[in-house]
């Protein structure tokens, strides 16, 4: 009953009424980008059932009859009504926000700050905000694209095509180019570096199986399984590297561009290109850029290793405590 109620609540929160009186579902509410909302719905639904639902406790070995099930279902009427009424009220607010395009305007503003010619400190702030939102389970302002749709990115591309080089482009430090080329290996939070660190440190069969299962998806920037299965989402042990390490990568890459060690990636990159190859493809096959990117990835793996060791140690300690509690119960 709580599971079905949670599913119906999520669907109800996704209903949108359009100005022409049409009805549609907001797909963003049902996607990975709104995972935090789904977790909150599930948690609150479960808590409301626990607070308001009266559970009939049966003695061990006592048979369950139809009347017992009917009584239990009847006891769940009150929490279901409370949840549905609350979902309707929240849905009304969400529809007001959607009707006045408040969310769309906020998303457009964040996108313009991420891809336009903004001050470098603001680009770093947007990177930090994006990775923090993704750590929370909310989609950020950066997408896995090079960002060639902005005016500044097109100016860089035209300069490279006219001069046959990406050195000296008019906008060398575009946030979208730097982020997708040097701070997005395997997806948000440098998931590929985390997975490689896990492969080096972890020794148990289950941990190595998790690494093998996620290697190909993460290599092609599909990090959902790793973010949820490890987990990284809402895990305080990984918040520092997942949020701030991409910003460090951008600072290092910007310095390398400043001293003309590597060019600014300006060319279009196919969606799904492995993270370490994005800068290489975006710089038209510059070999120094490839070596620089691989060195940057090795640095990220080195930074992640102590955090992975700490996480595994905490998990081991939790298993020990659980084993002691189970032994006491026996």
Overview of the structural elements:
- With 330 residues, the chain is an all-alpha fold.
- The chain is built from 14 helices and two strands, in the order H-E-E-H-H-H-H-H-H-H-H-H-H-H-H-H.
- A hairpin with a 5-residue loop joins strand 1 (15-17) and strand 2 (23-25).
- Helix 1 (2-13) packs parallel to helix 4, helix 2 (35-52) runs antiparallel to helix 4 (77-99) and helix 6 runs antiparallel to helix 12.
- The model has no long low-confidence stretch (mean pLDDT 83).
Mean pLDDT: 83
Helix and strand run: HEEHHHHHHHHHHHHH
Helix fraction bin: 55-70%
Uncertain segments are none
What would you call the structural class?
A: mainly alpha
**Span between N and C termini?**
31 Å
Order the strands across the largest sheet as they lie in space: 1-2
Overall outline: flat
List its traits.
14 helices, 2 strands, flat
Topology:
Blueprint: H1 2-13, E1 15-17, E2 23-25, H2 35-52, H3 66-75, H4 77-99, H5 102-115, H6 120-136, H7 151-163, H8 175-182, H9 191-201, H10 205-219, H11 224-229, H12 239-258, H13 278-282, H14 287-329
Antiparallel strand pairs: 1-2
Write a short abstract of this structure.
By secondary structure, this protein is mainly α. The protein is built from 14 helices and 2 strands.
